Every structure is written in structure tokens, then in C-alpha cells.
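Worked Example 4.2. Consider the chain below.
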Amino acid sequence: MSTHFICSTCGVQFAATEQAPERCPICEDERQYVGWQGQRWTTLEELRKDHRNTIRDDHGLTGIGTEPSFAIGQRALLVPSPSGNVLWDCITVLEDTTVEQVRKLGGIRAIAISHPHYYSSLVEWANAFDAKVFIHEADRQWLMRPDPRVELWSGKTRELWDGMTLINAGGHFDGGTVLHWPDGAEGQGALLAGDIVQVAQDRRWVSFMYSFPNYVPLPARTVDGVVASVEPFEFDRIYGAWWDRNVLADAKASVRRSAERYKRAISG
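Applying the procedure from the previous section yields the following C-alpha cells:
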């Protein structure tokens, strides 16, 4: 019987196979890592036995995260919009209670994902809500479970609806994407950034890395490219990848000054 196996380290679900895959290309890439106990696999059915999702407000957006934490531990964000909600980034666990709660909030028209580490069980989510999935074509090689619901987009920006825009910022991955939400931060604009513009522990600052777990920096010219990609957009807030990891004010200036600090540090 074929099964959609899930990598226990990165949380990404793979195309159905009779036996667990021998390797996870996402974790073997130098931006991630194979778990200390070796390559391990699970399934959505197994995860549902002892994991549940929490849905709560995260500074003006509905966050969806899993307890206990699984894999990388990011939370997804539901962006409300009159023409249809967007799920920003994705998590692996999905069960009936989550589906019911999200439907009460208006459901999901589309899923947009910042980079391959958060592809999770994107097809399960898309099927549950009859939604399409936006992924930048530069990262197509990392899509471990291809599906007709996935739309590979190209170029530097992809307009959605109600003023929302996907921006190919690059950096962490060639297809690294952020979402500009003009209605965010009480109308001052917000950037949903995943790991592409990483909110630091000191939440006045952000950072940029090729590999976060392996501490590999990006070159200055690449950081300049990330900053330039978001410069045309107005935003006062940045939503990071984990609960409460957000820059709550003056976010655009934070990106600029953080980039300058970063470049000073790597230049010696």
C-alpha cells in the first residue's frame, strides 16, 4: 500500500510510495540537516495521534501552529481578505478540527509558501480547502509531492487580489518569497516574511542567511537584492515564521538598518 511519508526533521510530505524514501533531498541540502538520529519518517496518521493544532491571534493575524512542536516548528498565518483568504506558509499537521475552525474563518482561497522548508503537507491543505498553491518556479526541484493544485509562478512579483503581492526576494532560496499585505498593521502595510527576512530575537532587527541551522551567511550583494525587492512596498510590520516573532513597528526601516549592520559584520 502506498503512503505519503513525511520527513520527521523538516516536516515535508512526499509523493506516495510503498516504502519510505531512502533520503530527504531537502534535509541533505546544506541549508538544512539530517536529524541527529539519522533519516526518520512518519505519516500524517501517526502525527494525529499525539499532535494537535492551536489557532490563536498573533498580532492581528490568525496563527495556526502544532503542539507539541514538530519538525522546524513554524506556524502558518491566515490572511483575511474580501476576495478570499490566503494561508501564508504551511504546517504539516492537519485534522478535522483545524479544517472546521478555518472554514468558520472563511476558508482558504490559496496557499502561498516562502521556501521549501515550509512546504509541509501543502497538498493535504490544498485538497481540504479546494485551494491553489503558489510556489516560485525557481524552487520547483524541492517540491517533493507535485500536484495539479500547485501553480508555479515566475518573475519578481505575482499579484494576487485585494492588493496583496507575492515578491520573489531570493536570498535563503532562489525562489524565496515574501507576501506584502497592504491592509496589515492597521492599514500601514505588513510583510509576511518566513525565513527570507528573518526576525531576530531582538525584534527590532531582522537578518538574512543562506543556512540558519548551519550558520552560513549570505554575501552582501544578495542581501542588497533582498532589500531592493521589498523597497517599493510600504510596510510597518513584519510577521516572522514563529509565534510572536514579529517586528511590530518601523519594520521597513528595520530591514534597511539590519542589512547595513549585517554587511558591516561580514565585511570585517
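The chain has one domain: 6-267. The mean pLDDT is 98. Compare this with Example 4.1 before moving on.
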